[in-house]
Amino acid sequence: MSAGVRVGVCSYPSLALPSKDVSLPSSSLYFGRKIHRSSFDTDLKLRCNSNGTRRTKPVLAVVSSSRVPELDSSSEPPQVFDGSTRLYISYSCPFAQRAWLARNYKNLRDKIELVPIDLKNRPAWYKEKVYPANKVPALEHNNRVIGESLDLIKYIDTNFEGPSLAPNSVEKEAFADELISYTDSFSKAVRATLSGEDSDAADGAFDYIEKALSKFKEGPFFLDLFSLVDVAYVPFIERFHLIFKDVMNVDITAGRPNLALWIEEMNRIEAYTETRQDPQELVERYKKRAQAEARP
Ligand SMILES: N[C@@H](CCC(=O)N[C@@H](CS)C(=O)NCC(=O)O)C(=O)O
């Protein structure tokens, strides 16, 4: 080590391939090729930037394997409250995606079992035995069930091992609170533009994100290092990015270099790419819903 070179602590989690619940059809859609496990493992070697911030090499694609099928009204319930820890999600739900991503990032794939639910044909036992609110995500842990994605990602971060997702300074903590409390307003503003209600609202919301991403300059994420804030926003930005491009022919990253870089860096994190949706399906689902809502 030469004098004067700053050596940072580079502590990304080891992004091992999950044993059973993984599939990344979206990755192959993005990159159009599959790679073998050995080279994939090598590709996941994590690096520090010269300034010590954490960095991954790009995740190109993932070995083909299938996602755990969703449980529906014909499925038997799991042995609820048998001491297992289960995360109930829907593959298409952005709120559930937050909790799923947090669980992956903390390398809890073996500790927290993923239980995907078909929301369109929901099993009655889900509301009766698991979560009376009848929504996803929900985490069954220590004989109780915790819901609400923003609470849940904090709960997972605090109550389980694995790399921390928490802000690492008082200043970042305050900024994280501000950003987390803006998540709903962000989505509302973007939706107001998509619905034609307010043509400028989305621009304001994306500009807010662009500015927020410039506050800390050591890394590409909201708080420099990957954190709960990135987890909270990425499922929504993923959707809006695709929908704006397809439906409105607008690139939300144009003129927003911080946002462009953030999306690029997010796509290097396997814990996230594993949860990403098939872009085409996502856009189709949005269009169908928008059409249905527009019908008198
Ligand atoms: N505020 C909740 C929202 C969860 C939510 O609305 N999930 C949707 C799926 S994306 C759901 O379960 N909907 C079922 C229903 O409302 O009946 C959270 O952040 O977890």
UniProtKB/TrEMBL annotation:
Describe the reaction catalysed, as an equation. RX + glutathione = an S-substituted glutathione + a halide anion + H(+)
Molecular function, one GO term: glutathione transferase activity
Q: What InterPro entries does this protein's entry cite? A: Glutathione-S-Trfase_C_sf, Glutathione_S-Trfase, Glutathione_S-Trfase_N, GSTL1/2/3, Thioredoxin-like_sf
A Pfam family assignment: GST_N_3
Keyword list (alphabetical) reads: Detoxification
**GST N-terminal domain: residues covered:** 83-164
Hey, which family's this protein in? Answer: Belongs to the GST superfamily. Lambda family.
Kindly provide the name given to this protein in its UniProt entry: glutathione transferase
* Native organism: Brassica campestris (Field mustard)
